[in-house]
Specification:
By secondary structure, the protein is mainly alpha-helical. Among the domains are: 74 residues, lambda repressor-like DNA-binding domains (434 Repressor (Amino-terminal Domain)), CATH 1.10.260; 116 residues, no CATH class. The protein contains 20 helices and four strands. A two-stranded antiparallel ribbon has the order 1-2. Strands 3-4 form a two-stranded antiparallel ribbon. Strand 3 and strand 4 form a beta hairpin. The chain is globular, with a radius of gyration of 21 Å.
Length: 395
């Protein structure tokens, strides 16, 4: 479905581009959204309609929710929830996929790379629109391949399942998320990649977060660390480092400060050995560890919260980090600021998170909780705070 071909979308696009700080030119927007400059000019003049994919790319480049540009103002979260049954249907037939065409592996590789990019950029509506058919196609490729050549289709399946899981977990479909993680674990052995196994162990921690089984999650991660390949090259260093980062956070949730600090120290030492980058689908490096330092401080709470504020005084995440990770940093920081009585700073952090990754921010339960708290604390609240609270459905 396309947006209306009148000036409404174009006017909104021109407005949000003009209020960016600094103002974004049409050329800059075109480059950021990977959309032709001529297309943007025609949209703003009201001379052409806008496909969902183009509209979402433009919204992501502007750091706003796609509903702000959409003529019907259809909220992204509604469309994601409506698409969940199709995602469930696709994975229900993982072992008996429907007949249909299957692209060559190199084309599937490109499609899966796109899905991984959308996950890191928190573009969840794109994922739910494209993944059901892609998962079915990947399942056909996997089952049609001879057993001795299944390693790449299996690895592609795992990566695609992870993209789907990101949507399920972020939007509260925890049963679907757990099922996707089990399918990741089912396909991983055929990929024959120990680093991918470590990556799946990292993602599996979501099931422990959802169940609040933090001590069990910590044990599972520590077992995964023991089984991970030796850290003798950058990808292996990052694999161990990401597991230590995750272990530090879940140890914090378990209120095990000793384990949290130990794993954070290990992650920091490993991060000093590699450049910040994406390794097997997860960002790792010195900046990612610093973000996790804030997360650990918030997880531990009490006297540790000041540590999160100390990090924020001297540093902010660079813009080349994935949007989901940067928005997560500001969501965590907002909670630390709110607990410290810095309500104005907390609201600014929440707004920063929304600018970076609106879909991720809107669905985060802490955002709704903190926005509701801010609204109560500032009884004569501004229209901006009221609008924000309504946007994220804060009670």
């Amino acid at each position: 479905m396309s947006a209306q071909a009148n000036g409404g979308v174009g006017r909104r696009l021109a407005y949000y581009r003009s209020v960016m700080r600094p103002k974004m030119t049409q050329r800059q927007l075109a480059d950021a959204a990977c959309v032709a400059l001529g297309t943007i000019r025609k949209i703003e003049r009201g001379e052409r309609g806008v496909s969902d994919a183009t509209l979402e790319a433009l919204a992501a480049a502007l750091g706003i929710d796609p509903s702000r540009l959409r003529a019907d103002r259809d909220p992204a979260h509604s469309r994601v929830h409506e698409a969940m049954p199709a995602l469930s249907a696709a994975i229900a037939a993982y072992d008996l996929p429907d007949d249909g065409p299957t692209r060559p592996v190199h084309e599937l590789r490109t499609a899966v790379a796109d899905a991984a990019h959308w996950r890191l950029a928190a573009q969840y509506t794109r994922i739910v629109r494209e993944l059901p058919s892609l998962l079915a196609e990947l399942a056909r490729a996997y089952h049609d391949a001879p057993a001795h050549t299944r390693h790449e289709p299996a690895a592609l399946l795992v990566t695609a399942y992870r993209a789907a899981d990101a949507v399920a977990f972020k939007f509260g479909a925890h049963d679907l998320s757990a099922r996707l993680i089990e399918l990741m674990r089912w396909a991983t052995p055929d990929a024959d990649d120990p680093l991918l196994t470590a990556s799946v162990a990292y993602v599996r921690t979501e099931t422990f977060f959802a169940a609040r089984a933090h001590a069990s999650g910590l044990r599972a991660l520590e077992q995964a660390i023991d089984s991970a390949p030796a850290a003798n090259a950058a990808p292996a260093v990052a694999a161990r480092g990401t597991l230590h980062m995750r272990a530090a956070v879940i140890a914090g949730r378990a209120r095990n400060s000793t384990a949290a600090e130990s794993h954070l120290d290990a992650a920091r030492a490993l991060a000093d050995r590699v450049p910040e980058s994406i390794y097997h689908g997860t960002a790792f490096g010195p900046d990612s560890v610093r973000i996790h330092e804030v997360s650990v401080a918030v997880s531990l709470g009490d006297d540790h919260v000041g540590r999160a504020l100390a990090v924020a005084r001297d540093w902010q995440p660079p813009t080349d980090l994935p949007a989901e990770r940067r928005s997560g940093y500001y969501i965590e920081l907002a909670r630390a600021q709110l607990w410290s009585g810095l309500t104005d700073h907390a609201f600014e952090s929440l707004k920063a998170a929304r600018r970076i990754a609106p879909q991720h921010t809107r669905e985060h339960p802490w955002v709704r909780e903190d926005a509701a708290t801010l609204r109560r604390l500032k009884r004569a609240d501004s229209e901006t705070l009221t609008n924000f609270a309504e946007w994220c459905a804060a009670n």
